[in-house]
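#struct-help
A.M.: can someone run this one for me? Single chain, 189 residues.
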Amino acid sequence: MASAPRLVTERLILRLAEANDVPSLIHFFTANAGHFAPTSPLLPPGFLTGAYWRDQVVRNRDDFDAGRAVKFFLFLRDDPDVVIGGLSLNTIVRGAAYSCDLGYSLAADRQGQGLMSEAVAAAIRYAFDELHLHRVKAAYLPSNERSGRLLRRLGFVVEGYARDYLLIQGRWQDQVLVGLTNPEWRAPE
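D.P.: on it. Structure tokens below:
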């Protein structure tokens, strides 16, 4: 079993959640439920319970160990026990693609401080340098201009527009598809 990644930036720590983080995870998602609702799928039953998150912590570690995904949570360096966001590198594919899908969320009271830009930049470096991926893909609602600006600022380019792409709040919604490639990619040894 590989050791879990821990990315440290100027202001943040990105790491997998652990069992002792469950109360902070529940607080993060409860406090931000209204903020996340317009851009998120409907929550599964029990999502805001300790049982759900204790199981999810184990599943996230299993996904990391199997090379399927890395599901980071964001913590401030000066408050390392409080979850302020999430960032996932999902659907990691090797072989001909060497790619992953990027997803992220940030607490409403942490918006506009450049924290997500800092976190995504660190995750991209990790995806390219440690996971040896060639492409990081993302998708966002056309109305989510803040997310579009963040991704463009970090070098993502628009690659397409997908109609009825994701089931968000019980309704199929369009997404802008963007990607970033690693110009220095080399096959892993």
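A.M.: thanks! DSSP finds five helices and eight strands in the chain.
D.P.: also worth noting: The beta strands are 6-8, 12-16, 70-76, 79-93, 99-106, 135-140, 157-168, 171-181.
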